[in-house]
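[agent] plan:
  1. take the single chain provided in the ticket
  2. run structure prediction with default settings
  3. attach structure tokens to the ticket
  4. add a short note for the reviewer (M.T.)
[agent] executing step 1
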Amino acid sequence: MVLWLEFNNRTYDDQNILNITEIIIITDIKLTEAVQVIRLIFTPTTGEMYVTRAECNARLGSLQEALDDINTVGVNRYKTGTYTDITLADLGNSQEAVLDAVLKERRRELYGKELRLFDIKRLHLPVTHSLSSLKISVPADDSRFVLPILDYYIDLNPEIEQNDRSNSGVVYEETY
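[agent] step 2 finished; step 3 output follows
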């Protein structure tokens, strides 16, 4: 997490930085300086490195090493003495169960880091949300998961075409 930033003799801490656009507007900084700010804000945390290594270990079959990393993250997140280590026996010595536990921990650890969309795309996950009596389902690899290219960049290079987001498989169901 960014502790503080200083541009144009102004200091911004992690409590009052909402997003990079605001920093650019507030400070009137140039694009090259904005890239430096982005690098500072989106520097991976120690917890993120642990869950990334845990996922790699789980996929490679090093289940105990994966759980060791997850347990390290858990011990440091919760109040001292309240976390109980997850063991291979708890997960039935199953690689799939360990990977599932690691991905759940990754989701908790990276909450608010705006990486969920990339995980959804990387893991080819469908998304389902319920709003009152409406159930919205977006299948994995749907065209709506592709972000649109900013008009600014299309204007700079007319050969760039906008990403096609029209072939959507989104399903809206009424549930009662």
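[agent] step 4 note for reviewer: The CA atoms of residues 6 and 112 lie 23 Å apart.
[agent] ticket updated
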